[in-house]
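User: Some background: our group keeps a shared notebook of sequences we're curious about, and every so often someone picks one and asks for a predicted structure to add to the entry. Today it's my turn. The entry only has the sequence so far, pasted here. Could you supply the structure so I can complete it?
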Amino acid sequence: MRIIKYLFLLLLLSFVALSIFVATQKGEFTVQRSHIINSPKSTVFTFVNDYQNWQDFGSWIVEDPEIEITLPKTTSGTGASYAWEGEKANGSLQTSLVKENESISQKMNYNGNLFSVILTFKDTVGGTKVTWKTTGKMSFGMKISSALNGGIDNVIGTVQEKSLANLDKTLVYEMNTHKIEIKGIVKKSETFYLYQTFTSKISNITKNARIVVPKLLLFCEQNNIELNGKPFTIYHTYDLNKSVSRLSICIPIKKQILTSAGSDILSDKLESFEALKTTLTGDYFHIKKALNKATEYSKTNKISIDPKFSHIETYTIGETEVKNPSKWITDIYIPIQPKVISVKVLAPAAIIVPQAIKTPKSDPKKEEEKSEF
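Assistant: Of course. Here's the predicted structure to add to the notebook entry:
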């Protein structure tokens, strides 16, 4: 009986000591981990910036097959958010600030504990260095949990390390999985469209498209304009030496309309033309490779390119339809000059005019002799 009392007293003293130890621990913390992702910075940033992709690399989601994810309408950019309910924890993330291709700031609620999170992206040898930094203040319960699991740096740091490793693995697959197919010569039918034209660095075209396309779609929605296909871009010029392009980002519509004077959204009609079609299945990062393959094909097969514009890209399946870059489809149309069919013109055959047959003149005297009258 006395031994049981001693054991109980020992447990009580241990609990009190642990409580005192935990209570006196510093509540504020900063945990940070970095990982080099073998992918371009813009690709990594874009993937992380969309919460639809977090279930592919967030370790607390990957490791819990029963977890339930809630995604709102806005999943990328400032104001985007998502939430989860799992067996071990519930929580949510909301993006508070985005610096394009540089950083993403977030507010995190994890089992009622509020943290600040910032992810930064920097070019480095071998790809992109992603740094995941979490700061916050621990509740008493969290202090106990952290103490029993090796400390807060170990608890949060492990989640960060696993998630970054998953991100690298996912993006390497998504980036490298692609296919380029030459579809041959096709006839592009005439198309009415709304557009905005500007000059841009080639590296910024994707960023600009994410701004312009929603603007064009909103204009159509507000004015009850019926769409007629997928967004596309007309590249009027495409200078790889200067890395600059003059382009029009377009939305196809059913009927031609006239926009008001001074509007930055214009309308036009794309006349039908013959084109060499090439299809890229995979991340848009491979678009230059697809263009090069199409150019080589045209040279090998002696197809004359029409210089009226560089090419057209139609975004048949993009990030708004499928979150996996390996499944995106971009159709490329390079205008060609139609083949002129030579026709041999034959000289007209000589026309033989038949000579008139001369009828011998009759002798009136003889005719009179023959007459009975």
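Suggested note for the entry: The CA atoms of residues 49 and 102 lie 11 Å apart. The chain is about 30% helix and 35% strand.
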